[in-house]
Amino acid sequence: MSDESRASRPAARDVLRLDTAERTRRLSPIGERILCMADSMLDRAIYSYPDVDRLVGLHSGTAKRWLEGYERGGRFYDPVLRPEPTGGDVVTWGEMVEARLLAEFRSRSVPVQRLRPAIVQLRQEFGRYPLAHARPLLDVDGRELVRVVQEQVGLERQLQLVVVRNGQLVLAESAERFSSAVEYIDDVVGRIKPDIRTPDVVMDPSRAFGQPAVRNVRTESLAEDYRAGTSREELADLYDLTPDQVDEAIRFELIAGSERAA
Known about the structure:
Blueprint: H1 3-8, H2 12-16, H3 20-26, H4 29-42, E1 45-48, H5 49-56, H6 62-68, E2 70-72, E3 75-77, E4 90-92, H7 93-102, H8 116-126, H9 135-138, H10 140-153, E5 162-165, E6 168-171, H11 173-180, E7 182-185, E8 188-192, E9 213-214, E10 217-218, H12 219-227, H13 232-239, H14 243-257
Antiparallel strand pairs: 1-4, 2-3, 5-6, 7-8, 9-10
Helix pairs in contact: 3-4, 8-10, 12-14, 13-14
């Protein structure tokens, strides 16, 4: 590549600060196609609000409040994860991913509603689903932008995504747990492990309709067959899985059906 060509290409830091449309315009043709495919994956509407509650481990109704807002004491609280309510009943993959991250903060003493100002600003920097992208959490420049936003909105430390530790800008514990449970594909989250206790169970928007699965076999189907009397050995043979994988699928459904609904 000539020096002139190199000079004409935007620096990584500059591209980070562009909105999605401008970023797409300035990227190479290959980079443009990758960005469009990633955004298309995040926009796949494949879940209901109860799905999110169950799979992320939230109390019933929490996902809808995070995504549609809610009214309490005569006051309306705006959505945390959407710019505004849509009135719809479906949830996109990008919204599922972001809800998974917010779920890491649900036990904190500070309500996650206070994350909204930071997410609004991060959306301007990283696009419609800022928390579903790798850059805010894994990229050095991205973390610095997150730090600046946190400071600008006065975000409480309990809700911060990045913190300074031993002179280094690193992920906060909640963000670190989230990062260890996801896999990034083309800069966006392409897979989620809904529960770290069952690492073989994965959610992927391009397989099994985004539902939890082990090697593309839905955990719900395996659990239903097991309850109907099919042995774990028979299930392993039928679906070409190991008995341990069958056990993980059944265990996940037990977790999602009991502990997560508690």
